[in-house]
Write a structure and sequence with these properties.
2 copies of one chain form a homodimer. Chain A has one domain: TIM Barrel. Chain A has 16 helices and 12 strands. In chain A, the strands form 3 sheets. In chain A, strands 7-8-9-10-11-12 form a 6-stranded parallel β-sheet. Chain A has a 3-stranded parallel β-sheet with strand order 1-5-6. Chain A is globular, with a radius of gyration of 20 Å. In chain A, about 55% of the residues are buried. At the A-B interface, α9, α10, α12 and α14 of A face α8, α9, α11 and α13 of B. Chains A, B: It comes from Frankia alni (strain DSM 45986 / CECT 9034 / ACN14a). Chains A, B: This is Amidohydrolase-related domain-containing protein. Chains A, B: One of its GO terms (cellular component) is cytoplasm. Chains A, B: One of its GO terms (molecular function) is carboxy-lyase activity.
Chain lengths: ~350, ~350
């Protein structure tokens, strides 16, 4: 390892204050908002009276460096790790995607966005948080997307697994696709959200469940392309965050094959091949994948963004420089620039990088 | 297009006689075996009293050139299309994977293997059919795998979606993994089998469902690697047929990341990284994918096999030469040789190709 490699991260997380919703919402809603309890060496997440997740405290704490909650410490971590700008997703706020009450979902999202704009994003133009919108009511989502744009957000987070009965190929979503395209807001789908990521038990379960989180991300792309949503809105850009990037050419080929070979069953017809739509409008992020560079260099798919996933265990903190050197030493500089910042700059307004 | 490109197909299908099981089994079993009825412009498949599938007759008939059922016509098609050796999967026999009665499953598989060895494989050494084993009872599967080897089969077909309650990471399967490794029989998992491939409705449904068939194939690899099955049996080779090949590097990276970053939860530990196991023991086949050549050339994954999927609509018949030229014109000859036959020759004994 020699020089510091500076990169911007397309996938990171902020840990919100636990009492965010208690401070912002009336008690009747606040008591149903995400909440955690620590006992018996376990941390349990409750949402609207339901247990969402239970982890060993050691696991939860391993993902909470001071910078997870404290934005000043965070910016020091970024400088030390060599991360310039950061797309920042929620942490506790992700549980909003698991709610089943539309009012609770709408109000929790609204409170999160207000908190984030005032107390987090305001700290630095290097932070590019996603806004949260309710996925339970598309009119609510459209309304909050407009408000989020006013608040300065450049993109909106959505769960990779949509609410039951609302698959992303359903026409019900059309107003949100149209509003996002019109507002120039990217839609950022983060893997592992909207449904429990734990589906397998038994030998290999941890790795199996880790892989399972990628499949709903593949489905999001498939549904938004096959249904014609991305074709009808050529300016709409979507992101599948944290699921890797090198599966995209395989999915594009698969969709082209189905579209062409099963022509007699295909509705709607598209104005472009699925692969053309995907390669142009679908962005992805990865952390460690050795397949990322050849995907850009040899497979012709360049909407590829590196992400630190700070501060999660799946991510690169505190070893970001080691990972970046393993990924990029000896690689063509144009490809490095593309993956570490150029792709992200297509999606978002980023501050100019201060020369290192 | 100029010269004829000769290729061997790692994925094709034979259409068995409709009355195969009526001829071979006692009436009480035969009447529950796969059967089709044509009426109202629909072809309906029944298995054990249940409707398995209903297709327009035009769709069913489009996949039935004379060579689908008549092996002499088939060999003429192969010569004309430029296909040398052929891995051949069942058609009606695939429904055995959807049965829930162990005796019916075992006896239908046995009858299929007897028919195939006597009436199909005997026609030419260029035909490499998979044997069928019941997936409902592992002892039955082990026993039939041994019998299949005696009958001359070189591999065994299994469904990508296992029976309910029997995920492929379960220890219940260990005797089959051990027996296949010991016998040198590859295990060939064919996409779209073992569960209905139709899961989505509405806009884009045909393409969405076509993509969905690939996910259980990804799961097979994940389960057999994460559970340690392929690590315990380094001579065991598995094939995921018809699902493409370029998703493998993405899956390998994802599994390595989960295995390393979630170390505290990972059981069992493996003697090699998941990616090493996958790149060495997992074989895949594709038909049209433009991503196949760069996967071999730039991503370091070379267990890649082309397949015609004869006589299916997803396949290349009757345009095989056009597809092969689109895939391979201008490509390094060593890569062409690898994809069109070399990989398959690692798995199977193939007859030497007669110079064209």
């Amino acid at each position: 390892m020699t020089d510091k490699i500076w990169a911007s991260s397309a996938d990171s997380h902020v840990l919100e204050p636990l009492d965010l919703w208690k401070r912002a919402l009336p008690a009747a809603l606040a008591e149903r908002a995400p909440w955690t309890v620590r006992d018996d060496n376990r941390e349990t997440v409750y949402v609207d009276g339901q247990v969402m997740r239970r982890d060993p405290i050691s696991f939860s704490d391993a993902m909470r460096p001071p910078g997870a909650e404290d934005v000043s410490a965070r910016l020091q971590d970024l400088d030390e790790q060599g991360v310039w700008a950061e797309v920042v997703f929620p942490s506790r706020g992700l549980w909003i995607s698991n709610m089943s009450d539309a009012e609770l979902s709408r109000e929790c999202a609204r409170a999160w966005n207000d908190w984030c704009a005032a107390d987090f994003a305001s700290a630095s133009a290097r932070l590019l948080p996603s806004a949260i919108v309710s996925a339970l009511d598309v009119a609510d989502a459209v309304s909050e997307l407009g408000r989020a744009k006013e608040l300065g957000f450049q993109h909106v987070y959505l769960p990779t697994t949509p609410p039951a009965g609302m698959p992303y190929n359903n026409e019900i979503w059309e107003p949100l696709w149209a509003a996002a395209a019109e507002a120039g807001m990217a839609l950022s789908f983060h893997v592992g959200t909207g449904a429990s990521p734990v589906v397998a038990r038994g030998p290999g379960g941890a790795v199996i469940n880790y892989v399972e989180t990628t499949m709903p991300g593949q489905r999001v792309v498939t549904h938004l392309v096959a249904s014609g949503a991305l074709d009808r809105h050529p300016d709409l850009r979507i992101v599948i965050a944290e699921g890797g990037c090198s599966w995209i050419p395989a999915l594009a080929d698969r969709m082209d094959e189905g579209y062409r070979q099963h022509d007699m069953f295909v509705r709607p017809k598209l104005s472009r091949l699925p692969s053309e739509i995907i390669f142009r409008q679908v962005y992805t992020s990865f952390q460690h994948d050795r397949s990322a560079v050849p995907t850009v260099e040899a497979l012709g798919y360049d909407k590829v963004m590196w992400g630190s996933d700070y501060p999660h265990l799946e991510g690169t903190f505190p070893n970001t420089q080691k990972v970046l050197h393993e990924l990029f030493d000896g690689v063509d500089q144009a490809v490095i620039d593309r993956i570490t910042e150029g792709t992200m700059r297509e999606l978002f307004d980023l501050p100019e990088r201060i020369p290192a």
